Amino acid sequence: MKGVTEPARPPNVPPPQQNLRAAAALAFSAVRAQSPQQLEWLGGRPRADRWQLEVLDDALTVDLAEGAVRTSEGRTVGPFWQILTLHYLATSSRPAQPPPEVTFAALPAGRAYAGVYRQRVIERLCRSVGRDRASLLGAAGRLGGKTVDAGDAAFDFQVYPRLRLRLVWYAAEQAQPANHEPQNLEPGLPPSAVLLLPRNVQDFLAVEDIVVLSERIVSRLSGDCF
Description:
Number of strands: 11
Strand order of the largest sheet: 5-11-8-7-6
Order of helices and strands: HHEEEEHEHHEEEEEEH
Oligomer: single chain
Number of helices: 6
């Protein structure tokens, strides 16, 4: 933009887009090295030199020959969903599938990121689509969320065929009169939420991926595309 100087980048540090391209290239290489049996165990369905994978409310196509991930409508997915999907498909073991029952902060490597995670995921959700129950119900239904009995509203999301997350939401508390005097109101509490993960989620995704995945789910709930 005219009159705006871009801040200098430290030497030898590539721009973000270049970093994403490099990460995607490495992830494609890892998936190409997977056996067909492992890709099928992870939920992939072979389609010639492509693999189809259920992701939330869509079936993404991973084209290993071309190096692309597309939606069912043929649109190329954004770099974050591309890399997350490839990292999931690069899982080399066959982890158990416990229910989503732990918070991000409870993960072995999650404590150091917990404050950032809360700001970028939980607080953002509650300021936007999670500001009221009706908005969240509609958004979760469109994204394939299955209603479960918890909090004031809760949903299970089958993000990947072997990776399920649970969102538990709590409604805002209304302001209450102090000392029974209506003119003196104690402030109420805003809505809150918790995103529950399988205890072994890091067998599928690194902690940095879990942060990005949680952010992307909030974006999808808010109406963004893959």
